[in-house]
Amino acid sequence: MSKRYSGSCHCGAVRFSYEGEEIISGLRCNCSICSRKGAMMSPQAIAVDALELEAQAGDLGLYQFDSKVAKHYFCRRCGIYTHNEMARKPGYCRVNLGCIEGLDTSAFDVTVFDGKNLL
């Protein structure tokens, strides 16, 4: 069953929404950037064109490193990481579950993705 999710950064300058499967668990990655962010991400990959973003020009920041395939987005006002476009699945993204309104991730089971040891 599909559900509508809405979220934002801390200050609300970057907002997003999408429709997807009910979120009952989370995903963490152990790569260098994800382990430092500590964010729990959506377990489902979301098509980039299905993620509805709202942000004023200049509010959405982008950080890339190494191969520059993955795209890590954050709010330039408050610094909160909102979502990322995936290196392993171009055209898809994951959102920071901590940004989704009304979602309590404290009791979620978490899967760890071994991004640290990818070739």
Descriptive report:
This protein has 119 residues and is mainly β. The protein has 1 helix and 10 strands. It has one helix spanning 32-37, and strands at 2-8, 14-21, 25-29, 46-47, 52-55, 60-63, 71-75, 81-85, 92-95, 109-113. The strands form 3 sheets. A 5-stranded antiparallel β-sheet has the order 4-9-8-7-6, with no helix packed on it. The chain has a 3-stranded antiparallel β-sheet with strand order 1-2-5, with no helix packed on it. A two-stranded parallel ribbon has the order 3-10. The protein is globular and about 35 Å long. The mean pLDDT is 94.
Features:
119 residues, 3-stranded antiparallel beta sheet
List the helices and strands and how they pair.
Layout: E1 2-8, E2 14-21, E3 25-29, H1 32-37, E4 46-47, E5 52-55, E6 60-63, E7 71-75, E8 81-85, E9 92-95, E10 109-113
